[in-house]
Every structure is written in C-alpha cells, then in structure tokens.
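Objective 1b: paired records.
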Amino acid sequence: MLQLRSIVGVADNSGAKRVGVFKVLGGSRKRYARIGDLVVVSVKVAEPRKAVKKKDVLRAVVVRQKQPFRRKDGTYIRFDDNAVVILDGTEPKGGRIFGPIPREIKEKGFNTIASLAEEVV
C-alpha cells in the first residue's frame, strides 16, 4: 500500500531511481494505492544523462508492494520492496523492467509492462 509522501523505487530504466508519491489517482478520497493503481510521482533521485530528471512530475503504476496482496483464488503475494514503473501515456517510459511483476498488472491492461518484465509471478 502506497500513500501520499511514500518514497518508492523505480523498476524500469527510464533514469529515475527513487520517486515520491504525491497523489493517488482514482477518486477524490482514495487514500492508498495497491498493485495496478496509478499514482502521480515526483522524481527524487535520478541517473545523469537519462530521459527522466530530478523534480520531474510523472505518472506511474504500482507494480510491487510489501503489504500482502490477496488474489482471487485466496492466495497472498507480497514483495520485498515497493516499486513503480513510470508511464508515458499507458506505455512504460523505459525499455526494460527489472524484478518480478505480478500477473495482476497484465489483467489491469498493462500488457507491455508484463511482456518486458523478467519474471511474471
């Protein structure tokens, strides 16, 4: 679960390393973002000479969360870190996705992210 002011890692090679969440999209009273939700982020730490710079305001999708996430079949899945993938419209801004990605991302309509991922769990 991510909320306002959460600092999270970035799971792609767009250039950002750490971002801060400052809006959870999906309603005026939506407080927490879970896997597959859209958030508005600000880049806190970025690599030099890449497409994304520090202080850029971007949209991203949550791809990993530490909080256990219940699946439809009753099983739970959780990850070691919280992570997002930076978006350009509905496509990822980077060309590679690092780390495991849950299959719920593909079910939510982010097929490109699922196909670029190293591992879908």
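Objective 1b, second protein:
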Amino acid sequence: MPPSSPARAQSPPRVGPDEKRFRILEAARRVCTREGYEAATMEAIAAEARVSKGTLYNFFESKEHLFLSTVLQSYDEAEARFDGGPSEDPRVRLDGFLEAMIESFPHVAAGMMVNLQVWAVVSRDADSRTRMFEDLSQRYGRLGADLETTLSAGQRAGVFRPDFAAAAVAAGLLAVLDGYVYRSVFDPGRAGARDLRASFDALIRERVLVSGTEEGR
C-alpha cells in the first residue's frame, strides 16, 4: 500500500471585495474614534483592517473619500432596517417604521462623533459636499415618502386621525430621530433609545391614532 500523502494545510477562505471594503470602513471608524480624524492615517487604517495600503487605495482614492464612505455606510445600515413589513395594515407598517428607527438608534448614535468630524472636513470640498448632501437628501426623501404614504393610508382606512398633515407628521418623526441622535453626543443620559420611544409614543397617541385605537398598539 503506498504511503498516504501528507495532509495539505487548508488555505484560509478568500475574502470578497464587499467584505474587504466593509472591513476597511469599520477599521476607519475605530481608528477615527480612538485618534480623531486629523490623526487617523491611511497607514493606521490599513493596519487596523489587516490589508495593504495599496489595497486601501484600490477601494478609496483618498482619506476624504474613505471617511465620506463611512458616513454613508452608517446610513446604509440604518436604512436597511426601515421596512414597515408586508402587512397592508397601516398601523402595523407604522409600528415597523418606528421600531426600525428605535432599533437602529444605538448604532447610529455610537458613530455620530465620527460622522460629525467627517462632516466638518467633507463640507470644505464642494464635490464631496454635493455628493453627501444629494445622497442624504435622497435617503430622507425615500423614508419620508414611505412614512407619508403609510400615514395617508391610515387616514383613508379610518384608523388614523383625519385632521393632520401626513407630510408634516412624517417630517416631524424624522426630525425627532435626528434630534435625539445629535443630542446623544453631548447628553447621552437624556437621549437614548428609551427616550426616543417615549417621544414617538406621545406624538403618535396625540396626533395620529383615532381615539380608541391606542389599546391595539
């Protein structure tokens, strides 16, 4: 019987470009959180992400581009949660939107210090500023339109009050979320997910629900 061949060492699993890009973005956030934007170098980020500096530049042409991408990635992750679900019941869909905002709040708030530093830098460059503002405007527009559609459907179904402007309430809910996110940076004890939920509950009870439907929520 011929001697058995020695076992070959298994190669580590290959990392695809999407996973590698995500790893770089997460590394950039960690480095910026520890050291601040100005002190964060591409070399430090490459080391943190366990990639070469050349690989880093294959994905991101500059430090500004990299950190702009970290901001937009944080919004990608939050927006992925914003799905009211398949139910045709406007109350269920509205609950789904609000729960998504509350569940995503801790993650968004945790990255807000990095986002603020990046905003300050990116806003100095006209092209980067335009890209970021257009991207965020589209995101807020999509979510606001979905909320407005749900609120209007509830009014037509008679489960939401008829005497409020759906567009204004949708914009107000998003503004409440933003307000708590920004306040979490300097006043975290008064701006947490529980506080956000309490504000949403109060606004929905007072402005949206038809009297007698509160028990169903």
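The longest helix spans residues 126-157. The CA atoms of residues 140 and 174 lie 8 Å apart.
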